[in-house]
Amino acid sequence: MARVANTLLNGIQGTMGDMIFYQVNGVTYTRRRPNKRTNAQKKRMKKSPLNERSQGMFSMVQKYLKTLRSAIAFGYQEHTVGASLPYHACVSYTRKNCFAFDGRDYRIDPALIKVSRGSLMPPEGAKAEKVGEGILFTWRNNSWISSARPSDQAFIVIHDTENTTMDWVDLGNFREQGEHLFKLRSYYLNSSWHVYMAFSQKNYISKKRTLSDSVYLGVV
Prior knowledge:
There is one protein chain. By secondary structure, this protein is an alpha+beta fold. It is built from four helices and 14 strands. The strands form four sheets. Strands 9, 10, 12, 13 and 14 form a five-stranded antiparallel β-sheet that branches. A hairpin with a 2-residue loop joins strand 3 and strand 4. InterPro entries: DUF6266. Residues 32-52 are annotated as: Disordered. It comes from Algoriphagus aestuariicola.
């Protein structure tokens, strides 16, 4: 992947020779077109146990993260590099770090998932519990430790255990407040959720948010 600097080629899309031109956020990039494999090569690749597991893991990650995609766009915003988008960074991290293995069997472990990653100080002593109106998140106020500030805002994601829906809040209560009530719709009150929490901080230079790594708080 390379960014196109030649102004004559800006805006071009499609194939030219052995190069593929494409656009991301209005910027033109290029990559080399992969060589065509023979039928024999394709057959050998399909039979490879390592290749089968790699493809299986990739498909599993894509399916699992599909529900979380909108939250990932916020949580991985620091990882936008060129044509690599936040979702791509999350897919890569999940493939490498979020699987539990049992012999030849493998599965994604929700406790290892990161819905955000970044350099900000994460929550300390965070807990989540069901209450009448929803889920109450509490944490210790660690403002002014390292990069933490009182005005950092909670980023909360809840993901149902059946992987069919999720809900989230991007700019919740401040770090100094020590708690946030995540109100649930009435038809969600009896559901079980994997819950995650992080903090974000406004970056006045980039006009974006600096995120912390998310913390998994279990199933509620």
